[in-house]
Each structure stands twice: as C-alpha cells, then as structure tokens.
Specification:
There is one protein chain. The chain has three helices and 20 strands. By secondary structure, it is mainly β. The chain has an 18-stranded antiparallel sheet that branches. A two-stranded antiparallel sheet has the order 10-11.
Length: about 350
C-alpha cells in the first residue's frame, strides 16, 4: 500500500511551527455512536426483520472513540473505530422480509443486491489547526494511521426466483471472517495497515455568523494481507441439449475462493462523509444552527436552536429531515452530551446517536 503524500505533508508541515509558544495544553476525549437503518427499525433489522416493511435501501453505523491532547493547534491522540455501511435493493429487503416471516412469495424473480463494507481499526492521529486572517479562518487537516484485523467488503448482485434456491448471482466478497458462506474464514486473522485523512474548515464571518465544513475520510485506505475471498457466479437457467434432442438443466456454480490457504492481499476503501454547518448567534443567549451532512446516497438536514444560561452553559434541541430524528443536548466549556433519535421507544427507532465530548485546559 502506498500512502498518498499530500495529506501527510500537510499535517506535518502545519505541525512544525506549533511548539514555540507557551499556550495551555488541552486534554480532550470524544465518543460518538450512530446507527441508521431503512426498511426496518434498528432492532428488527439486526434480528428477525419482523416489523412491517418500510421503504429504503441503506443502513450504516459509525462509532468512534478518541482521546488526545492539543497544544498550539497541534493535536495527537489515539483512536478506535467501527464502521459498517450497507446498500441494498428494496426488492432484497422485501425478499428477506418474506423469507424470515414465512410469508408467500410472488411467482417472479426478485432482485438481490447487497453491497457492504465493515471495518474495525485502532490507531493514532495527528492534526493541526492552521489559523489565517487574524484567526477568522481555520483549516484543520487530520491524519490517522491505524491497524485493523476485522473487515468485510463485498457485493452480491443478481436475482432469486420466488422462494426457490434458484437464480443468477454474482459475488465479489473479501473478509476476515466469512459470514456469508461460512466456509472460507482464514485460519489466521488478516493483518491490515492503513490511514485516513480528514479535512476541516471554519470561517468566523462576523461576531454572529460562523460557517464550517468537514470531510471525514477524504482519503481512507487499508491493505489486508491474508484476506479470505469468494468470487464467482451462479447461472439462472443453464441447459444442455442431449443426443436425443431433449434438454437437460443443471445448476451451474463457479466460485474462486481462498480455501486451502489461498488467501490474498485486499485493499478496502471507505467513501467520504460530508458535513456543512452554519451557526447564527441571534442574541447573547439564543443561537440557531443549520447543519447538512451527506453519507453515500443519504442527505440529512437539521435545524437546531441553542439557549445559553449561567456561565458557559447551554442547552440545545434540533429536528432532522430524512431520519426524522430529534436531538437534545447540554454543554458547557468542559463537556457536551447529546442524544438523537426518531423514537424514544428504541425498539421502534430507525436512528439513534449518542455522543459526548470532554475537555480540560492545563
């Protein structure tokens, strides 16, 4: 794996001028756990798929733990992540719902499409806040180097006929543990090394207006040595013509796998995630924020109101489109705690996000 030089150079170059002054050292910790599922509420999606079927074609969870220090704009620390992204055809959700609930299949071909990426990683990061124009503009690159041993990266695409074990499917699947066929898990865990690059931007337009943007995983690449894999296809209606003129049909399955220690090296990449925020301070106590974020095909827009009280305390609440979630939170200069969901009856929630931030200057 060749690490792209530009983000590394940016992070290190910005960091070299940062240790001259005697500013406070800030210790900070942040945690975020976010999950969103379409077609079914989260609990049913992960278990029995037994709730009434909803529209949708995607699901994801992003979970991040960080602990670090920052001084003169330079941040260093440790990071752990678990990310899982799934795309599927609505017909695939319908097929799964029928199958798991013993319902009646229609007499037709169902589109079966799944595209999933999952990875767990642990590593270290370095970041720098580059301040420009009298600190009104801040550019913040962040580079993370990590190791990973657990991942899934695969696509299954084709059709399945009614409730029969019959169809035409193509598979391109790489893994540390074979959860699809359950036959080809490598005897030794793959060894993965990789990096990610985030880029943030903030502009304090005036005393009341601030605009910020962030791209997470602008670059994300991890190379796994010893990866298991399954590549191949099944045909829909294979046939042969016999010598007496009759036609015989037999299933055809062609799979190339990592069985018998034929593991390979596989590179996994995650797609970028985009965030844009506009904050307007209406008065000393009241502020408004419009936030937009885009993950793959899903775009979420949120409007929030913030109310300040006492010294450095504030509460905030917001409502988000697409997920139809409501956010509630409280913060001061030492911590921030927020929870967002579309249903406080969590058995019926399609979205949930718990996050907190802790910080202290010395």
């Amino acid at each position: 794996m060749k690490i792209k030089k530009l983000p590394v150079v940016l992070s290190l170059l910005f960091a070299t001028s940062a240790f001259a002054a005697k500013d406070p050292i800030s210790i900070h910790h942040n945690f975020s756990s976010e999950i969103y599922t379409e077609a079914q509420p989260v609990k049913a999606f992960l278990d029995d798929f037994d709730k009434p079927l909803e529209s949708g074609d995607s699901a994801f969870t992003y979970n991040t733990f960080e602990l670090g220090v920052k001084h003169i704009g330079v941040g260093v620390g440790i990071q752990s992540r678990f990310d899982y992204v799934l795309e599927f055809d609505p017909d695939t959700a319908l097929y799964t719902h029928i199958e798991k609930n013993d319902l009646t299949f229609e007499d037709r071909n169902y589109r079966y499409y799944l595209k999933g990426k999952q990875s767990t990683s642990h590593g270290v990061y370095i970041s720098y806040d580059l301040e420009l124009l009298n600190k009104s503009i801040v550019i913040a690159p962040k580079m993370t180097f990590f190791q990973s041993a657990h991942f899934q990266d695969g696509v299954v695409d084709g059709t399945i006929y009614s409730g029969e074990v019959q169809g035409a499917l193509k598979t391109d699947y790489y893994f540390s543990k074979d959860v699809l066929f359950k036959e080809f898990t490598p005897s030794e865990k793959p060894s993965g090394k990789g990096y990610s690059f985030d880029l943030g931007f903030a502009w304090q337009v005036n005393d009341d207006l601030k605009v910020s943007a962030l791209v997470k995983d602008l670059m994300y690449e991890v190379e796994y040595e010893g990866s298991g894999f399954v590549k191949g296809f099944t045909t829909d209606i294979p046939f042969t013509e016999n010598s007496d003129g009759t036609i015989s049909t037999t299933p055809t399955v062609q799979l190339n796998t990592s069985a018998y220690s034929r593991e390979i090296t596989h590179t996994l990449e995650h797609d970028p995630r985009y965030y844009v925020n506009v904050h307007y301070q209406y008065s000393d106590k009241i502020g408004f924020e419009l936030a937009t974020r885009k993950f793959n095909k899903d775009t979420f827009n949120q409007l929030s109101v913030k109310y300040g009280f006492w010294d450095h305390w504030r509460v905030f609440a917001g409502a988000e489109s697409h997920s139809k979630a409501v956010q509630l939170g409280i913060a001061n200069k030492y911590f921030e705690l927020a929870f967002k969901t579309d249903s406080f009856d969590l058995d019926n929630a399609n979205y949930a996000n718990l996050s907190w931030v802790l910080r202290k200057d010395f």
